[in-house]
Amino acid sequence: MGISSAERPQHRLATTTPDDLPTGVHRHSPAVGAAKGEHGRSIELAERGLVLARTWNIVEWVPTLHHTLGTSLRLSGRVDDAVVHGEQAVKDGRLAVYRVHLGDTYVAVGRIRDARQRAEEGIALAREQDDRRGEALAFRLFGDIAALSDPPNVASAEGYYQQALTVASELGLRPLMAHCHLSVARLYRRTGTREHAHEHLTTATTMYREMGMTYWLEKVEAEQKT
Predict the structure, then answer these.
(1) Can you give the residue range of the structural domain that contains 106?
(2) CA of 39: how far to CAs of 33, 104, 130, 157, in Å?
(3) Mean pLDDT of the residues in the chain
(4) At what angle do helices 154-171 and 174-190 cross, to 10 degrees?
(5) Same domain, 54 and 78
């Protein structure tokens, strides 16, 4: 089942094109903000966009702006505020990415059961809407949840990460591929398989450097030193 006509404006905004958000928020989407480490600028523009959307009564902008703001807040460490905006995006919009990224935020605050529920909702919605990117993101979140089990469910996490990598590779989503390699490396470091961890850290480092994703490059290089 594809995306309905009522949902297409949200889908268009979520995938961002130069004409979608004249406020300039599209230039500071969570992915770009994360890559450059410009979380403050991304937050500022998303907040401004919300004011304009409400002023102009452009309701279809609101879910994506809450999503942008929530994701940027999470990446800047303001996880409690991120939960508020992530939940509002899920309430207002019907896209898999909103649910998956709210799940990421729940993981950050230790709400693993809620994160799993968002992952399940996200993958169901992605399949309903033929949203393969959303499906790949959900696989990656399922992998993170399995990796954070006590003890880590290594086989399950590996399986989910591989599914995410496969779909991301088919779609050419190199940032998501790099994130998956970083997650796998963290899993192997946690379970003592340091040789395999080093291999995936090296792959993630190379990909982040090639894409100019300096924020994530700094994070992975810091992990390599520990």
Answers:
(1) 1-130
(2) 5, 17, 30, 29
(3) 86
(4) 160
(5) yes
**145 and 119 fall within a common domain:** no
Integer CA distances (angstroms), 184 to 12, 41, 112, 143, in order = 31, 30, 18, 9
Instruction: Give SS3 for 55.
Output: helix
Cα 106 to Cα 118: distance, rounded to the nearest angstrom: 9
Give the integer Cα–Cα distance in Å for 176 and 178. 5
What's the pLDDT tens digit per position in 32-65? Answer: 664 566 788 888 888 888 888 888 888 888 998 9
Residue that is last in its domain, among 73, 106, 130: 130
- Report d(CA 136, CA 171) in Å as an integer: 10
Which phi and psi angles does 17 have, rounded to 5°? -130, 165
Are residue 42 and residue 117 in the same domain, yes or no?
yes
What is the total count of domains within the chain? 2
CA distance 180 to 163: 10
CB count in 10 Å sphere of residue 110: 11
56-111 tens-digit pLDDT: 888 888 998 999 899 999 999 999 999 999 999 999 999 999 999 999 999 999 99
Q: Are residues 40 and 79 in the same domain?
A: yes
SS3 (DSSP) at 216: helix
CATH number of the structural domain spanning residue 154: 1.25.40.10
Residue 223 has what pLDDT?
78
